[in-house]
Amino acid sequence: MPDHYLDDRLASLRGLTTAPLPGAAAARARGEQRTHRTRAALTGVAAVVAVLAVSVGSAVGGLGGDDRVRGLTASPPPAPAVPEGLAVSLLDAQDVGQVRDGAWSSRSTEDAPFTVLPEGCSGDVLGEPVETALGYLDNGTSRQVAHQLTAWPSEDEARAAFGRLIDAIEACSGEPGFPSLLGGLAGEGPDRVYGEWSVPPPYLRFAMEVVGGTVSVVADRGGAFATYDELPQLADLAAQKVAGGPYAAPPQPSADDWDVGSAVLTPAEASTVEPGDWTAEPLVDGRVLDPCQTLAGAPSPEDGSGESLRVQRETGGTAVDTQVARYASPEEAAAELERYRSAVRGCPVETRGIGTTTYEVLTDAADRLVVREVAGCSGCLPFPSYSVVAQVDAGLVVLRVAVGEDGDPGPELAERYAALAQDRLALVAGSD
Q: Mapping DSSP to helix (H, G, I), strand (E, B) and coil, where does residue 56 land?
């Protein structure tokens, strides 16, 4: 480029009017504006990056990437508590769900909604068990189920506690605000009783049972019109769990060494049929049933025991005489039952002095004989009673039921006492 061209351009520029340079204050103002704009821009970029990071993290987490990494370092959730000791035998939500519909779940015992163990009006009669367990279950309705267990060092101590509880209930049966025994439900017998507790509402019914060295109480609480039909089923489930728990029933004794005295019907068991203040006395010598005295020459058992139970009412009362015998073998016990059967059939009418007694076979089964006896005399009212002879393995129980001024007890009452006596004998003698 020619030099004169450059000179001409500079000359023309020299003639222009120029603006003065900004002062220091103006320069600082512009600098601050640029700084604010820069910070705002950076902040916006950071926000966008954060949003993108969350979005990408969520997407990766959905694929298991980020969560998988965090899972390697995070603490695992606590495992549910596993029941220990006696608590393993408590009913759980799954057990109750087998019997009753609904989403059942366990409830804390810290805010126990009601008392389970029915100790009656006699105060603390339970004593000091070696271990206890308690559980409540509900399904969000007014119906609730509770299960309480008390364990003892031996089956004898558990049965003693079971008897004390029954006696305590009977001591205040019928009193307002206290429990009372309830009959007519399936499964009742020497080892299980049912009861109800109506005050305060809602109403509650319970099943109390001894299983080995454990006393089990299942309570079912609901409204006044609840039927409680499932209570026996709940009690059966509870008994199964207790039988498989740490205080399960010991092996049954053999027919050679079982205790005959333990096979006799007790006042507590009799009260499950007819509530009342039962007393027990040793049974006098002689057979409970011996038509025409034809059994005197029968072979003697290896061991025997007997007891006479009595309960008084305003008019009359009930008497239950029980004899239990142990023979050398089941065959000998069966032969003795056959002798009773032949004696009754061979003596339809027996005369003693001015009185007569007639014998009528009502039930003639392979292991049980039920006989109706009617004693009478000239000018007096007939006096009916019932005798039962039942065999369990090498054991034989003979039971007689009679009432006073109440009249004819009926075969149904005798059958209920007979079932109790036979169950007791099966438990002691070791029958399946």
A: helix
Q: 190: how many CB neighbours lie within 10 A of its CB?
A: 24
Query: Which residue stretches of the chain have pLDDT < 50?
Result: 1-74, 76-80, 251-255, 432
Quote the pLDDT of residue 65.
41
Which residue(s) pair with 205 in the sheet?
196, 220
What's the rounded Cα separation, in Å, for the pair 431 and 331?
14
Q: What whole-number distance in Å separates Cα of residue 206 and Cα of residue 225?
A: 16
pTM for this structure?
A: 0.44
Contact 210, 317 (CB under 8 A): no
Residue 68 belongs to what H/E stretch? Answer: helix 65-73
Helix-, strand-, coil-residue percentages of the chain, each rounded to 5: 35, 25, 40
Task: Please give the C-alpha separations between residue 260 and each of 256, 281, 325, 406, 419, in angstroms, as whole numbers.
Answer: 11, 16, 7, 32, 17
Q: How far is CA 275 from CA 1, 62, 137, 169, 272, in A?
A: 136, 69, 31, 10, 6
Amino acid, res. 194: Y
100 burial type by CB count under 10 A (0-12 exposed, 13-18 middle, 19+ buried): middle
Spatial CA neighbour of 312 closest among 406, 176, 181, 183: 406
Tell me whether strands 180-182 and 144-151 are parallel, antiparallel or unpaired.
Answer: unpaired
The half-sphere exposure of 423 on its side-chain side, counting CA atoms within 13 A, is 15
